[in-house]
Write a structure and sequence with these properties.
Blueprint (H helix, E strand, L loop, with lengths): L6 E7 L3 H16 L6 E8 L3 H11 L3 E3 L2 H5 L6 E4 L7 H9 L3 E4 L7 H13 L4 E3 L7 H11 L6 E9 L16 H4 L3 H16 L3 E9 L4 E3 L7 E3 L5 E8 L4 E7 L8 E8 L2 E6 L5 E6 L11 E4 L23 H14 L11 H20 L3 E2 L3
Parallel strand pairs: 1-2, 1-4, 2-3, 4-5, 5-6, 7-12
Antiparallel strand pairs: 7-13, 8-11, 8-17, 9-10, 11-12, 13-14, 14-15, 15-16
Bound molecules: nicotinamide-adenine-dinucleotide (NAD).
Amino acid sequence: MTEKIPTLNIGMLGYGFIGKAHANGYKQLSYMMWPPPAIPYLYLICGRNEKAVSEAAKRYGFKGYRLDWKEVVSDKRIDIFDNCAPNHLHFEPTVEALKNGKNVICEKPLAVNGELAYEMYKISKDAKGKSMVAFNYRFIPAVILAKQLIDEGRIGRIYHFRGRYLQEGMVDPNRPLTWRLRKEFAGKGVLGDLGSHIIDLARYLVGEIVAVSGITHTFIKERPLSDNTSQKGTVDVDDAFESIVEFENGAIGTVEASKLCHGRKNYMYFEINGSKGSIRFNLERLDELEVYFANEGTNKIMGFKDVMVTESSDPFIKYWWPHGHIIGWGNLFAHELYHFVDCIINDKDVAPQGASFEDGYKAAKICDSIEESSLTGKRVELKY
Ligand SMILES: NC(=O)c1ccc[n+]([C@@H]2O[C@H](COP(=O)([O-])OP(=O)(O)OC[C@H]3O[C@@H](n4cnc5c(N)ncnc54)[C@H](O)[C@@H]3O)[C@@H](O)[C@H]2O)c1
């Protein structure tokens, strides 16, 4: 007979793009990853507009909804507060939830700047509940394999990390001025949005970043205020950035992101070159990892090997389908949330597999430093 499985009540803020992905992740977790450490129960969802949030509750399967996040973070029945709101709403609700003893998963970037992210990290250290930043790309089986190969020394001493996150979503100058393009709500533009992902992966895979030299840029400086108006507003954040990064272990690298790249859909790519080999990964082919081991012979036609990371021995894959029956972007949320639930139930640290609030703070500080370097034209050394 199956032992009794505990339940954890979820309170979620935000039901847009990523709220939908998290709600789906909780459902997949208890459906596919059996037996789960706990069964997530979609308890309360929160937003501002009653018609829309009540519809989201119905559609995603939440028991109820609220219009004020304070009622969610103070509700004694909530075990996990899941912050899927825009960036400016990460700080206050997350801090309140932590102070109320909740376990908290907060979307990236942890805060609109490094200073607020540092406050959140400090509060998380003394909090009763677990905390994790939703850097979901740490939960791609192929990325975890890349980390294993690096940690085992299979590619030797690392020389280079080359990371880019490119999309085409904002190439049309008539796409409206959403919260992502306004400093007040987003903090940073593509640097915080896509850049924080690639920066987190650089730290996860290669190690601490100690200095940056970067440039941020805004190509499209004005956009329509909404779909149905010709009235324009100012884009006061970057829409592209490039940076050189220096790692504590001596490796050097580059990171860049932009949403002005025709033809790029969701192209997050990294390549790591070491003394014994190389690794490369492309999010648009997330079930595959390309590897090159220099000691595998001198045959001149030899190139990168494409490894399908879909064996049941690969992380999380045993919960899905037989090998070769690939998984996708939406499934990563089940991995991430499974890990968080497991850490809560079995009292484990979320790091190093998951991103702690310290990781979230450091990623935010690196983004700040790239912005500072762009403003001053100088290399910035990181002091955490
Ligand atoms: N990990 C990832 O891959 C990933 C992908 C997309 C977004 N994100 C992150 O998720 C967060 C949300 O992004 P999104 O794409 O879902 O945005 P979105 O605009 O699609 O949804 C935002 C949600 O927050 C709600 N909201 C906005 N202002 C509010 C307020 N004042 N009070 C209450 N609710 C409010 C909106 O109604 C909506 O439900 C951001 O921090 C973003 O960086 C992460």
